[in-house]
């Protein structure tokens, strides 16, 4: 049964004239934390005299009417949902999934259901590990919603602890390896390289990451596999392979944009390159328009089995939408690269 949204209404008292909106709401609605109220303000769920306010530091005026729209309460734990899964490998301890684009890994704001976790609960039942929090059982790493590819999930607590250590180590002392294929704008002037630049939350946009001096250490190694020329005969795009030395949010997308080669189709970090589609053939333009996501695929995953110690390696072919873009880009001219693609 669906829960209805509720609306809290209050009038600013004279003694609160000139105070910050988030502080007033926190004092007047004690059932909600200040951080929760701040999130509601940023999400556009608060209005003053009918005007939506998205700034928690907004100064309020006495006698103003404030409305706060509260989303329906979420269940304490995700429920199982019969969502099809592409299972690459499964045993009593782990399950490896080839995640399609569009599937969110775990429930979060705006995605309370229809996630990989909901599908895994239905598939694995009570065996799914609870480490990491009730909302993300078994999850030891993640892929962005619109990044496709390989992802391993722990099915019990012991496997979760061991896999979590592997991912925290980033393969420095073990066989862990993660490889991605990306089609990026332009052609790097070198066959391979590395981006070492710290990543943190974007100062103006809470949904973006950015290169920041005070960010977390991040390293991405890349290698050009193929280069494609545009209708003007100049390089317009490249197929690259990326290997992660660290695992930060949006890492490949941020790092490739940082060096001037954002991932094609990226709706967040490649917006400044949309006009470059005019340099593509009509077929490639159509393939890019049909993509509707970043051309990024986690094609390689190698782990040490958390119980047996065996090294397991999995590979996934490019999904149809990225494969079509690659084919139509290469149909113009492939200028060659430095290695073999998958």
Plain-language structure description:
The structure is a single chain. The chain has 342 residues and is of the alpha+beta class. The strands form three sheets. Strands 5, 6, 7, 8, 9, 12, 13, 14 and 15 form a nine-stranded mixed sheet that branches. A four-stranded antiparallel sheet has the order 1-4-2-3. The protein has a two-stranded antiparallel sheet with strand order 10-11. The protein is built from seven helices and 15 strands. It folds into three domains: 6-70, RNA-binding S4 domain (Structural Genomics Hypothetical 15.5 Kd Protein In mrcA-pckA Intergenic Region, Chain A), CATH 3.10.290; 75-169, Pseudouridine synthase, CATH 3.30.2350.10; 172-303 and 317-342, Pseudouridine synthase. The mean pLDDT is 89. Helices cover 20% and strands 26% of the residues. It has helices at 21-28, 34-42, 116-124, 157-169, 251-258, 282-291, 320-332; strands at residues 6-11, 46-48, 51-52, 65-70, 87-90, 94-99, 148-154, 177-185, 192-196, 199-201, 209-211, 219-229, 235-244, 296-304, 311-315. The two termini are 46 Å apart. Strand 5 (87-90) and strand 6 form a beta hairpin.
Précis, in short:
The protein has 342 residues and is an alpha+beta fold. Helices cover 20% and strands 26% of the residues. It has 3 domains: 6-70, Structural Genomics Hypothetical 15.5 Kd Protein In mrcA-pckA Intergenic Region, Chain A, CATH 3.10.290; 75-169, Pseudouridine synthase; 172-303 and 317-342, Pseudouridine synthase (2-Layer Sandwich).
């Amino acid at each position: 049964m669906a829960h209805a949204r509720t609306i809290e209404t209050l009038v600013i008292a004279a003694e609160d004239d000139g105070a910050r909106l988030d502080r007033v709401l926190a004092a007047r609605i004690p059932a909600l934390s200040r951080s929760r109220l701040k999130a509601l303000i940023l999400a556009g769920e608060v209005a003053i005299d009918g005007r939506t306010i998205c700034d928690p530091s907004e100064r309020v005026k006495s006698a103003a009417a404030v409305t706060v729209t509260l989303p329906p309460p979420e269940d304490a734990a995700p429920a199982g949902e019969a969502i099809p899964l592409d299972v690459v490998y499964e045993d009593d301890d782990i399950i490896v999934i080839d995640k399609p684009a569009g599937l969110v890994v775990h429930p979060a704001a705006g995605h309370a259901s229809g996630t990989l976790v909901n599908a895994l609960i239905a598939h694995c039942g009570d065996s799914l590990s609870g480490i990491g929090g009730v909302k993300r059982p078994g999850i030891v790493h993640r892929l962005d919603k619109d990044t496709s590819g390989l992802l391993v999930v722990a099915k019990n607590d012991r496997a979760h602890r061991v896999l979590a250590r592997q991912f925290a180590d980033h393969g420095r002392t073990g066989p862990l390896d993660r490889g991605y294929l990306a089609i990026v704008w332009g052609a790097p002037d070198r066959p391979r390289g590395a981006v070492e630049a710290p990543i943190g939350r974007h100062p103006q946009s809470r949904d973006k990451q950015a290169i920041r001096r005070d960010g977390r250490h991040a390293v991405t190694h890349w290698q050009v596999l193929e280069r494609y020329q545009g209708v003007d005969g100049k390089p317009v795009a490249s197929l690259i392979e990326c290997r992660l030395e660290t695992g930060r949010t949006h890492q490949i997308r941020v790092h490739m944009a940082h060096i001037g080669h954002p991932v094609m189709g990226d709706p967040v970090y490649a917006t400044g390159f949309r006009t470059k589609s005019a340099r593509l053939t009509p077929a490639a333009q159509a393939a890019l328009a049909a993509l509707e996501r970043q051309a990024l695929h986690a094609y390689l995953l190698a782990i040490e089995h958390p119980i047996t110690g065996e090294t397991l390696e999995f590979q996934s072919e490019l999904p149809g939408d990225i494969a079509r873009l690659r084919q139509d880009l290469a149909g113009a001219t492939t200028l060659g690269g430095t290695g073999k693609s998958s």
